[in-house]
Amino acid sequence: MSSPYWLSTNTGDWEVVIGLEVHAQVASHSKLFSGAATNFNAEPNSNVALVDAAFPGMLPVLNKHCVEQAVKTGLGIHAQINKFSMFDRKNYFYPDLPQGYQISQFYYPIVGEGHLDITLDKGIIKKVRIERIHLEQDAGKSIHDLHVKNTCIDLNRSGIALMEIVTKPDMRSPEEAMAFVKALRLLLRYLGTSDGNMEEGSLRADVNVSVNRPGKPLGTRAEIKNVNSIRFIGQAIEVEALRQTKLIESGEGVLQETRLYDHNKQETRSLRSKEDAPDYRYFPDPDLLPIHLAPEYIESLRLGMPELPDAKRQRFMEEYGLPLYDATLMVDDLETTHYYENTVKETAGWKKYKDKNTAKLVSNWLTGDLFGLLNKENKTVLESPISSTHLAELVDLMQDNVISGRIAKEVFLDMWNTHKAPKSIVDEKGLVQITDTSALESMIADTLKENPKMLADYKAGKEQLFGFFVGQIMKKSAGKANPQMVNDLLKAALSQ
Ligand code: ADP
Ligand code: MG
After folding, report:
1. Positive or negative: CA dihedral 316, 322, 327, 329
2. For residue 105, what is the DSSP state?
3. What are the φ/ψ torsions at residue 130 (nearest 5 degrees)?
4. Low pLDDT (below 50) residues in the chain
5. Alpha-carbon torsion angle 449, 454, 458, 461, nearest 10
6. Which of 51, 123, 214, 456 has its CA at a distance of 20 to 30 angstroms from the CA of residue 335?
7. Could you please report the per-residue DSSP string of 192-249?
8. Does the C-beta of 385 come closer than 6 Å to ligand 1?
C-alpha cells in the first residue's frame, strides 16, 4: 500500500489521531478470581473452575499474583499506583460470558496516569501518555466453525486476568501506534508481567482513530475492536483514516461507532453505532472487597524492578559505545540482549581493555551474519548453533590478526554447520593468517615477476593497477595473507 499524504505528523491537509486500549493477558498460572489453570493449548473447557462457569453461589477470590503484575506494569510506565482500587461489574449478555457481567475496574483502577516513550525515525523520542491500567477478567470463546448448526462455547479463557492499558489520544500516525505497541510489548516482556504473544491473543488492541484539520479540535472517533497484530494495527489505521477523510471531504460526517478491521479486504466495517452502544450499568461488585496497597508493598516491588528497555538501550550506547541503531536491535528481545552481553564479556578485547571497538564488532556479527542465518532458518537466538563463547573466540581470532575478516566469514559458516570451535576449524583447515614478512615478500616478488606487462604499466603511471596486484597476492595465499601487511609490503616493493 502506498503511503498516503497524512502519514507525516505535522504537514498536509489532515492530521490523524490515535488512542489505544490494549488488552494484555497477565502472566499467571491461575485466573484472576479462581485457581483454574491458564495454559493456552488445553482441551476445551478443561481449565474451568465453578466460579469461571458462574455456578450460582460461587464467590470470586482475588489472585494476589495478578495484582502484583499490574502494579509492576504500572511502575514500568512510571505511573501513579493507586493505594485504593475497586472492582465493578460491567453488565452485558453474551453466550460466552456466563456471569452476565464482566468484573472490571471502572471507577477506581489500580494504576493511574503514566507514560511510555517511543523512539521514532532519526532517534526522536516521543512521550505517549497513558491514562490508566485496570484489571479485568476475560470472557470465554464462542466457536462458530466446529459444528454445522451450533455454536460451541469454550470457557478456558473465562476469568483469565487481563490488564487494560488505555492511552491518551497522543499518536499521530500508523507508525507511531505500531511503535507504541512494540515498545509496550517489549516492556511487558522485560517485566515478565505478560508474554505479549499476539498470535495467541495475549495482546490485542482496540484502536481509536479520528481525523481533523491541523490546528482544529479533534474529530469524531471510530473504535476498531480487537486488532491482533502490529501490522494489522498499522493497516487498520491507514484505511480507517482514509475512509474518514473521504467522508468529511464529501460533506458527510464521521459517526462515533465501533468497527471491525477485515484484513483480507483491507477495510473496516461497522459493528454498532454509539446509539446502539450498550449501557453497562457499572456498579461495585458486592462479592469483592476493595484493594488496599501498603506503601511498603509498592516500594518493595519498585526495588525489585529489572533494568527496562529504554535504560538498557541507553546503557548499551554509553557502556559499549553502540550507535542508536545497534543498541535498539540489541535490546529488542531479552534473548538477544543476553547473547550480546555474554559474547562481549567473553572477548579478550573487553576483558582486558573494555574495548568499545570489540563491542561494536560483536554487534556487527549479530546484526549481519548471525541474524541473517537465524532468519533464513527461522530460528531464535536461543537456538543458535553458534554459542556466545564461540562467537567471542572468533572475534578474538580476528582482533589478534590470526585470521582475516574474509576468512572469519568462512569460519563462521563452518561454525554454524559443524558447531565446532573456531580455533579448531582454523587449525584443521590451516586458515591461520600469513603474517610472516619474508613469506609475504616472496609472494609479492613472484606476483610481480609473473605480470611484467602490468608492472611496466604501473611504473608508467597506471596506479590503479595496485588493486590488481593485491588481488593476485591474496589469491596466491588462498585469502590468508594479512591484507594490511600486503598493502604495506607491496607499496615498498613497487617504489623500489
Ligand atoms: P470511552 O470511555 O468512551 O471508551 P475514552 O475517553 O476512555 O472513551 O477513550 C477511549 C480511547 O479513545 C482512549 O484510548 C482515547 O485515547 C481514545 N480517544 C479519545 N478521543 C479520541 C479521538 N478524538 N481520536 C482518537 N482517539 C481518541
Ligand atoms: Mg473504551
Report:
1. negative
2. -
3. -110, 130
4. 1-11
5. 150
6. 123
7. TS----TTTTSEEEEEEEEEE-TTSPP---EEEEEE-SHHHHHHHHHHHHHHHHHHHH
8. no
Q: How far apart are CA 17 and CA 405, in angstroms?
A: 49
CB of 166 closer than 6 A to ligand 1? yes
**Local structure of residue 171 (DSSP, 8 states):** B
In this structure, which ligand is nearest to the CA of 207? 1
How many residues are present in the chain? 496
The CA distance from 28 to 18, in Å, is 30
Cα distance between residue 114 and residue 111, in whole Å? 8
108 CA to middle of ligand 1, Å? 18
- Ligand 1 atom with the smallest distance to the CA of 170 is 16
Q: Which residues pair with 127 in a beta bridge?
A: 117
| Distance of alpha carbon 496 from alpha carbon 162, whole angstroms | 78
What pLDDT is stored for residue 143 in this prediction? 94
Longest CA–CA separation in the chain, Å: 102
The pLDDT value given to residue 75:
98
Q: On the CB side of 386, how many CA atoms lie within 13 Å of its CA?
A: 23
In the numeric block, the cell 490494549 is attached to 22
Q: How far apart are CA 289 and CA 297, in angstroms?
A: 18
CA of 434 to the centre of ligand 2 (A): 69
Q: How far is the CA of 88 from the centre of ligand 1 (A)?
A: 20
Q: Which ligand is nearest to the CA of 22?
A: 1
Number of the ligand closest to the Cα of 132:
1
The CA distance from 296 to 280, in Å, is 36
- Residue 349 Cβ inside 6 Å of ligand 1? The answer reads no
Q: What does the DSSP 8-state code read for residue 481?
A: B
Asked if residue 168 has its Cβ within 6 Å of ligand 1, the reply is yes
Strand 161-167 versus strand 152-154 pairing type? unpaired
Q: Which residues contact 2 (CB under 8 A, 6 or more apart)?
A: none
- Determine whether the shortest distance from the Cβ of 457 to ligand 1 is under 6 A: no
Supply the DSSP string of 117-131, one letter for each residue.
EEE-GGG-EEEEEEE
Cα separation of 453 and 444, whole Å? Answer: 15
State the Cα–Cα distance between residues 156 and 375, nearest whole angstrom.
34
H or E, element range at 211: strand 203-212
Question: DSSP of 346-376, one letter per residue?
Answer: HSHHHHHH--HHHHHHHHHHIIIIIHHHHHH
Instruction: Using the mean position of ligand 1's atoms as its centre, give its distance from the Cα of residue 222 in Å.
Output: 9
> What pLDDT is attached to residue 363?
98
| Ligand whose nearest atom lies closest to the CA of 254 | 1
20: cell is 489505544
Query: What is the number of the ligand 1 atom nearest to the C-alpha of 169?
Result: 16
CA atoms within 13 A on the CB side of 130: 29
Asked whether 169 lines ligand 1 (CB < 6 A), one says yes
